[in-house]
Amino acid sequence: xxxxxxxQLEALEQKIKFSDISAEVSAVELWGGADVIVRxxxxxxxxxxxxxQPLVISIQSTEPRRxxxxxxxxxxxxxxxxxxKGIFSTKIDYVSKFDFYGLLAQSAIDHVTKYTEIHDARPxxxxxxxxxxxxxxxxxxx
Length: 142
What we know:
By secondary structure, the protein is mainly alpha-helical. The protein is built from 6 helices and 3 strands, in the order ααββαβααα.
């Protein structure tokens, strides 16, 4: 299963690096799921959503909290998250999805915070994709 997942991730990476994904991206709705939302700006609704963190008692391995990724590349990042959802659909479950998408969102937040002036979405997408690869490797080695 790992080889299949890694192969799909490698193919996705090649698509990000060398293909024009703009038509696919334009049709995508902004991501919202597993306590992660992706937006182009921090509006009142998003701010309120982040401020109402529920108390969560869970067996997930990451900190259970809501994450909002605010980036000019919200459509592109949402597209990537939907792609990864399809690739990992048989690997993640009702608990691990919070770890998986939380890690991806935190990776995106960290990247956006560090590289504020990059107008090309590809570095952000590759950083998040590399986090997904790490999740895949962690799961199969554990």
